[in-house]
TrEMBL record:
One function term, GO molecular function aspect: kinase activity
Organism per entry: Myxozyma melibiosi
Protein's name in the database: Hydroxyethylthiazole kinase family-domain-containing protein
Source organism superkingdom: Eukaryota
Pathway: Cofactor biosynthesis; thiamine diphosphate biosynthesis; thiamine phosphate from 4-amino-2-methyl-5-diphosphomethylpyrimidine and 4-methyl-5-(2-phosphoethyl)-thiazole: step 1/1; Cofactor biosynthesis; thiamine diphosphate biosynthesis; 4-methyl-5-(2-phosphoethyl)-thiazole from 5-(2-hydroxyethyl)-4-methylthiazole: step 1/1
Cofactor dependence: Mg(2+)
Length: 518
């Protein structure tokens, strides 16, 4: 068993093929150590033994001076030759028992695992830590296994949370400044999270390993960025704060970057303007970095046209917004309607953090991995309210997000507090994109209420559904065709009333708190 309490927070893995021109591996490692890496693994797949030992001795001088462990990848002879603090071995390398026999009880032995079965055996064999992954596609070695994604990480952490003794675990596989937060926070399960991240090219290939290391270490040490303090909530307390949110949208005109289907585009742009926000529809990957850098900007991912190319485009945008901690809303349109869309939902969940996930019953059930009944974009299931709330709360807890399940009654939950809202009008189920445009409004409200996403969701749904009721009551409205323009008008009128401090329209709100009894 490793004798020392090892800090696995920022685990540098070297790769001689990634060193930028004009510098050396030794220089990159030295800068990374200055930047705060907490453990180093020297990996030399092609070096001659003598060269490997010479390099290992140099690097060991650096790590000893910094008081951090040096592990040798796979080669026990090299580890013994320089008296390294331990080794890291793969599934196809020397077995753990033999390594332990050769190295003794005081050296660190780490093992690469992808699956719970491998982790189970590793625990039985008495390794000191697990290297889990590749989480994402990795360019630093030919993957023997497909990437395991966030879901694969969660499976292993769930298993480790049940193990009698604490087993440290680090994740590896394309972890960098864009993906580190998601990997650390989305993989966490109750009572267990990663002990650190293993990083290769993001540091070794960097022109500034010291700064990158420092920024990565800061991400590892910071609290989960979307943890909002969840106070106990009652409908009157929340409704009282709704006008502030709607007035702030008008005051600040948040930019809502839409990735949205062609059916809904124009309607969504006009609804976004009607509530006082500013829409931009762009599927142009090269401009996502610019858009996600805009202050007061946010992203709506509407999966209406879920082609494989579109999914890649969604992921490109989500990565940019996640990295900049800008809000992202996900509308898994028709998420349960086809095998391709079910796969798309999994792919997006595996790599993204969403601040709100909004959909009809079939879509939310599909995202939650429940049996989903859909016909095209429409939900054809009608589960009990208890069942729907159970699914919504479970999804909100698992994805650390706000879930909005829409229908004749809307359900909003952060996993702890759940509201059922009963406003709206039948015409909303007679027009297309009625759910899509709610996504635009939710995104606008979220942008001005990042510290309280639950409130943002309640504000958006109430604004939309009460506007729908008022629009339907207009004498000019005789059916869906005259309803849509009246709805846009009502959204515009209600946000102006809020801007003038008049929230009398909220007296129509029908909001109940729902507490599961089982
Ligand atoms: N039968 C209904 N009566 C009142 N409001 C409804 C009804 N069906 C849907 N809505 C409202 O319409 C909006 C879109 O919901 P939904 O139709 O479930 O979305 P989607 O169009 O994505 O399937 C929600 O705000 C919801 O409250
Ligand atoms: C009809 C249709 N087809 C692909 S996207 C879309 C619009 C769906 O809108 P909503 O989810 O609001 O019903
Ligand atoms: Mg929809």
């Amino acid at each position: 068993m490793a004798p020392i309490k090892v800090d696995y927070s920022l685990y540098l893995v070297t790769d001689p093929n990634l060193v930028p021109d004009g510098t050396t591996l030794e220089e990159q490692v030295e800068k990374a150590i200055k930047g705060g890496v907490t453990i180093v693994q020297l990996r030399e797949k092609d070096a001659e033994t003598k060269d490997f030992i010479d390099r290992a001795k140099k690097i060991h001088e650096m790590t000893k001076a910094a008081g951090i462990p040096l592990l040798i990848n796979d080669r026990l002879d090299v580890a013994l030759a320089i008296d390294a603090e331990g080794v890291h071995i793969g599934q196809d390398d020397i077995d753990v028992a033999t390594a332990r026999k050769l190295l003794g009880p005081d050296k660190i032995i780490g093992l690469s695992v992808n699956y719970v079965s491998e982790a189970t055996k590793a625990v039985e064999d008495g390794v000191d830590y697990l290297g889990v992954g590749a989480v994402y596609d990795t360019s630093t070695k030919i993957p023997k296994q497909p990437p395991i994604g966030i879901s694969g990480l969660r499976k292993i952490l769930s298993y480790l949370s049940s193990v009698h003794r604490y087993m440290p675990a680090v994740a590896i596989g394309s972890i960098n400044l864009q993906t580190a937060r998601n990997v650390l926070n989305l993989s966490a399960v109750p009572s267990r999270s990663l002990d650190g991240i293993a990083v290769v090219s993001a540091i070794i290939a960097s022109p500034d390993p010291e700064t990158v290391s420092r920024e990565l270490l800061q991400i590892v040490k910071e609290p989960p960025y979307w943890m909002s303090v969840v106070k106990d909530r009652t409908p009157p307390a929340i409704i009282a704060d709704v006008p502030t949110i709607i007035a702030k949208v008008q005051e600040t005109t948040p930019l809502v970057h839409h990735l949205i289907n062609r059916v809904a585009t124009n309607f969504a742009a006009n609804v976004t303007l009607a509530v006082g926000a500013s829409p931009v529809m762009s599927e142009n990957i090269p401009e996502f970095a610019d858009f996600s850098s805009i202050e007061n900007g946010s992203l709506l991912v509407n999966m209406g046209f879920a082609t494989p190319e579109a999914v890649e485009m969604y992921l490109a945008a989500i990565t940019e917004y996640n990295q900049r901690l800008r809000p992202v809303v996900y509308d898994p349109v028709a998420g349960g309607a086809s095998t391709l869309r079910k796969e798309a939902v999994k792919a997006l969940l595996n790599r993204s953090h969403f601040d709100i996930i909004k959909g009809n019953e079939g879509e939310i059930f599909a995202v939650a991995g429940e049996m989903s009944h859909m016909r095209g974009v429409d939900s054809t299931s009608s589960s009990s309210m208890e069942k729907k709330v159970h699914v919504v709360e479970g999804l909100a807890t698992k994805e650390k997000t706000i879930v909005v399940l829409t229908g004749p009654q809307d359900i909003i939950s952060d996993g702890i507090t759940t509201f059922v809202l009963s406003n709206g009008h039948d015409y909303l189920s007679s027009i297309t994109a009625s759910g899509c445009v709610l996504g635009s409004i939710l995104t606008a409200c979220l942008t001005v209420s990042l510290e309280d996403r639950f409130l943002a969701a309640v504000a958006g749904v109430l604004l939309y559904t009460i506007a729908a009721e008022r629009a339907a009551a207009q004498p000019s409205v005789r059916g869906p065709g005259t309803f849509v323009p009246a709805l846009i008008d009502e959204l515009y009128l209600l946000r102006n009333m809020c801007a003038k401090g008049d929230s009398s329209w909220l007296s129509a709100a029908k909001v109940e708190r729902f507490v599961l009894t089982s």
